[in-house]
Specification:
This protein is an alpha+beta fold. The chain has helices at 8-27, 55-61, 65-81, 101-117, 122-139, 175-182, 227-244, 286-301, 305-318, 323-338, 346-356, 363-381, 393-415, 417-420, 427-434, 442-447, and strands at 32-41, 44-52, 88-91, 94-97, 141-149, 153-154, 161-163, 168-172, 184-185, 201-214, 253-259, 269-272, 282-283.
Amino acid sequence: MKTRVISNDALISLRTALAEFILIRQAYPPMDLQKKTIRESPFQWRTVVEPYFGINSWMAFNQNTEYQSIANSLDNKLRKQEPALLGHLNTGGMQWQIMDSKMLLASLYSRYETLINERIAPDAAINQVMEDLRLVFNTQKVIENTLMPLNGFQIPEDINVIDLDSETSIVRLNDDQFKFLYYHDMYSGPRENPDLGLAQVALVIKNEVDFSLTEIRESNPVLITTYELVEAKVQNFLSAIHILKSGHLHISRKYQMLEPNVFPGMRGSSSGFSGTRLPSFLEINESEISKLKAIIKNLTNTTHEAVRIASRRLTTAENRFTPVDALIDAAIGLEILLNPNDSSELAFRVALNYAYLAPEAERRKRFDTLSAVQASRNKVVHGSIKFQNSANEEVASHAATAKECLRDAIGRFLTDPSLCNSPKLDRDFWLNRIIPEMVVPMKQTLKE
């Protein structure tokens, strides 16, 4: 990617226009109403209505002659000094057109407002906006910030951030993030539904991505998207939290923003995840944080694909509506993880493999437990138990047991050195444990 440096003349023109724009904009009265959600507890809130600068306000402000004069003057200067600033943005597989100086000034003002809300002095805030613009233009790099509310997920009250790795963290929502999710125009709905419980924390993933600014639209821009990386990290987090403990936790939406958001379109987009919408509630204490980090690290580093698949099955099982579905998912996860290469006597071998994962004194009990789970699973898949029988006590009990067995098995495959590199518990795995290889080869012994 070519190195570019924004011209000083363009920066001076932008700074002068932004300072003038701020004075006019702040003197202009808001014409829209906003519903503001005030949180009092995870499931208690109140709503107040207050004026704010929304779409109707901006439409009226765009007719202001003084504002039009500033924008037109800036437009003429930039098309000579740095025309790419009014061109096309390309990043993360998406493209936007800045269009004109009005759009650019509005974006710079939005960044200015964010800094002012952080209690930065006005002159310092303008300087920071210009520095952000210079860095983005010159480096052609931005930070993609993906925020995913975790409804019903609780962390210790005295902890605000849990760093899971260099790019992923669990954060307690600050005022700006909460406002983004739950404040909305009087005539539209919030991004997140407070009826499902106010999210207190979110999963945040930050990645550096390439960014290009071109005077003309690129027909085939070379872009790097982090979509697959984000999806993998989300799945690792959900798998790890369900390996750590039982409970419902899902992510319904993700919000992606580019930072610093100095250009139009950088405030981001949102997309939904497929899946069930069971009410979530899951809490971790301080002693479990290090365990969660270790599980995520092991899941990230494992080359054992069966462990990854089984972990996803556990996550699905934990968030199923019915015990029938949960039982089938957990049983499939166990079979994927414990299935021998030789498929004969499958149920017996899976139960035997599960039993062997524990000390000798526990093995018979584990064998009987998983055999009972498999028997119940077979009744379901072969029609002996109907889906309408989801309240069946046997199915409900075995669904819970299956998830615990799968959680236990995944944990052992991630941490036991003798299992980490075993793609299957096959003939050789058992042979070396039951009949250890002789030090002296048998042929040599016969010759003697």
